[in-house]
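Duplicate of #3305? Posting structure anyway:
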């Protein structure tokens, strides 16, 4: 496997993607089964070509082929094997190729697992995915070719950014990209529906599993990235409202709204136009995040490239994909029939309110993220929008969102009355009141206090929904167990996902009470923080595979009893002339004891060391909640009634309407 084979496979994939974008669309328009039948084969062919291309790039990295410019710039002989592999996507060119490969896998999945779709709909969906893939593959070939050669080839490479040499960030990009790109499938279904002029319950049933799967991956990717920033960057925080962090949060918010809106389409054939717009918007925000990272507009620890030429190419691609889809929406959406009516007090009504609040939060985050670069571009002013703005604007919207989350699963469809629902949620309300009282006693600010109460409310109401469905405590336990076996797994999945939100919010509220100190100490000196005694007992030097390290030993005691021994470190990478911190964390799942080693001062005979000490209550709950959310989504997907698409529409003649 050599770079020329990888480059050829990439070019071939681009040609196949162009054919995939054109031929099935013509076939669907002409109702030609032969052309429509080409769609799955072309999608699988493109997928195989890109997998081959990506494998060639990995092979070049593993074999230290420094004649490939990408390998020479991002790898080195002494680099550990794991990071030689994962470093393939830890740079601009490799990450774009990874994006294209994941997109091709999505197209292949629709081809292989969408056989129960109407042939015209499947052809159109695969064609849309092919068109988007062709754009990214052209981007790869013309501006970001990962197989570009360098001559003469150096004996060794420049190595990788040391911050990226970490297992958390090694696997964060593929998971995050799968979430980003996964929303291309609902987008393709939305464009196909607009072309076809039809959205119905079957369409909602086909879209929902793809949206849930993408949402699960995006949730895991965001949680993993947040965890990485917490334990690698050494700042003691978990989310810094970095512009590129926001670029992943924005499609997550609209994607969450899409998942809920698709349920209304499936169950009640309502919110059709809104669901189509959400599908377009979510993928558009995913593409916009790519533009922000690679255009040079935003400066971020996450940014891969600062190249205006690449940014212009992506901007053109964005204009074509987003502008074209919105133009098609404006032309065709009025032709989509409206769904069934429902009362404001109903499950549909609360889902609409859920959508409004989620999209309002999205609008606030988008405004805060884009306002500084627009001010710089238009008026030449440099301003910063940071944590105080985002906290003050998003939390007041998130609290009512969580309040309504507790009612949603308990509400009947079409029309409901509040009193029966409130009567079933009395004990959840009681627990929330207790949490509110405890929070008032232990917390300082009003927003964390309210967030704690709402988090307990969401968790308790999710449990109430399951208890009510199982009729626990109202019939023998054996009967409840039999009922549990017959309930759809999607019921348990939804309850878990909602509870995961509550767990994450509890973690965020706990972190608002975190305490920290920055101290300069001699070896043997003790400092106090959060009632614990922190003693620096030793500092030693060590050598790693491609770095030199200075490792500290810190003993943490409470009332004289040893709680833990921390070993924070500083690593110096000679080839990159860069130093990184290695955080030491001890957790008991209730709080984190967190230590960071800073600079060495003084003389070798009498040295002092800077330490950053943190006590972070409930910190693990933030990522535990993300895991619970993703498990809830996966549990829903494991339900055959959600995962398997709806049966074919009865009348084949109605599957396609003339454009």
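Output from current build:
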């Amino acid at each position: 496997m050599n770079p020329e084979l990888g480059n050829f496979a990439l070019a071939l994939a681009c040609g196949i993607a162009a054919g995939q974008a054109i031929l099935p669309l013509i076939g669907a328009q002409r109702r030609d089964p032969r052309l429509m039948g080409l769609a799955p084969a072309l999608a699988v062919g493109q997928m195989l070509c890109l997998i081959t291309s990506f494998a060639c790039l990995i092979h070049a990295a593993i074999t230290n082929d420094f004649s490939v410019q990408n390998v020479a710039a991002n790898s080195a002989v002494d680099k550990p094997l794991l990071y030689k592999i994962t470093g393939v996507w830890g740079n601009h060119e490799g990450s774009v190729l990874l994006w294209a490969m994941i997109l091709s896998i999505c197209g292949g999945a629709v081809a292989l697992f969408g056989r129960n779709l109407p042939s015209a709909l499947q052809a159109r969906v695969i064609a849309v995915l092919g068109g988007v893939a062709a754009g990214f593959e052209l981007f790869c070939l013309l501006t970001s070719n990962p197989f570009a050669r360098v001559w003469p080839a150096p004996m060794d490479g420049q190595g990788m950014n040391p911050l990226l040499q970490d297992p958390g960030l090694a696997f964060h990009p593929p998971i995050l990209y799968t979430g980003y790109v996964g929303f291309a499938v609902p987008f393709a279904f939305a464009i196909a529906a607009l072309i076809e002029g039809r959205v119905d319950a079957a369409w909602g049933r086909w879209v929902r599993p793809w949206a849930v799967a993408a949402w699960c991956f995006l949730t895991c990717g965001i949680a993993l990235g947040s965890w990485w920033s917490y334990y690698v960057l050494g700042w003691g925080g978990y989310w810094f409202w970095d512009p590129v962090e926001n670029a992943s949060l924005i499609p997550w918010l609209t994607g969450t709204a899409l998942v809920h809106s698709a349920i209304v389409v499936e169950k009640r054939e309502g919110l059709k136009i809104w669901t189509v717009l959400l599908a377009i918007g979510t993928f558009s925000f995913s593409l916009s995040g790519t533009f922000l990272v690679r255009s040079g507009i935003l400066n971020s620890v996450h940014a891969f490239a600062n190249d205006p030429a690449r940014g212009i190419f992506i901007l053109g691609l964005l204009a074509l994909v987003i502008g074209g889809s919105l133009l098609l929406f404006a032309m065709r959406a009025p032709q989509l029939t409206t769904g069934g009516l429902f009362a404001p007090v109903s499950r549909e009504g609360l889902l609409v309110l859920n959508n409004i609040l989620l999209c309002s939060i999205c609008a606030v985050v988008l405004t805060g993220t884009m306002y500084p670069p627009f001010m710089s571009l238009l008026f030449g002013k440099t301003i910063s929008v940071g944590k105080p703005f985002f906290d003050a604007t998003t939390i007041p919207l998130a609290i009512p969102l969580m309040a309504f989350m507790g009612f949603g699963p308990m509400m009947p469809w079409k029309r409901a009355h509040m009193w029966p629902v409130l009567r079933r949620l009395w004990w959840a309300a009681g627990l929330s009141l207790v949490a509110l009282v405890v929070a008032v006693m232990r917390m300082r600010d009003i927003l964390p206090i309210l967030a704690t109460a709402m988090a307990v409310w969401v968790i308790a109401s999710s449990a109430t929904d399951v208890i009510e469905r199982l009729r626990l405590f109202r019939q023998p336990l054996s009967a409840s167990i039999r009922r549990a076996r017959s309930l759809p797994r999607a019921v348990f999945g939804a309850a878990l996902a909602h509870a995961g939100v509550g767990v994450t919010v509890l973690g965020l509220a706990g972190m608002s009470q975190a305490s920290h100190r920055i101290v300069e100490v001699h070896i043997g000196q003790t400092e106090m923080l959060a009632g614990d005694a922190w003693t620096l007992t030793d500092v030693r030097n060590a050598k790693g595979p491609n770095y030199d390290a200075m490792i500290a030993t810190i003993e943490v005691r409470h009332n004289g009893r040893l709680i833990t021994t921390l070993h924070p470190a500083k690593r110096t990478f000679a080839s990159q002339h860069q130093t990184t911190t290695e955080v030491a964390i001890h957790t008991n799942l209730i709080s984190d004891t967190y230590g960071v080693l800073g600079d060495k001062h003084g003389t070798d005979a009498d040295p002092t060391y800077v330490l950053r000490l943190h006590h972070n209550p409930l910190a693990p709950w933030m990522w535990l909640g993300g895991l619970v959310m993703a498990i809830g989504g996966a549990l829903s997907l494991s339900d055959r009634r959600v995962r398997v698409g709806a049966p074919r529409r009865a009348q084949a003649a109605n599957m396609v309407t003339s454009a």
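Confirmed duplicate; merging threads. Residues 347-379 form the longest helix (33 residues). Residues 59 and 325 are 38 Å apart (CA to CA).
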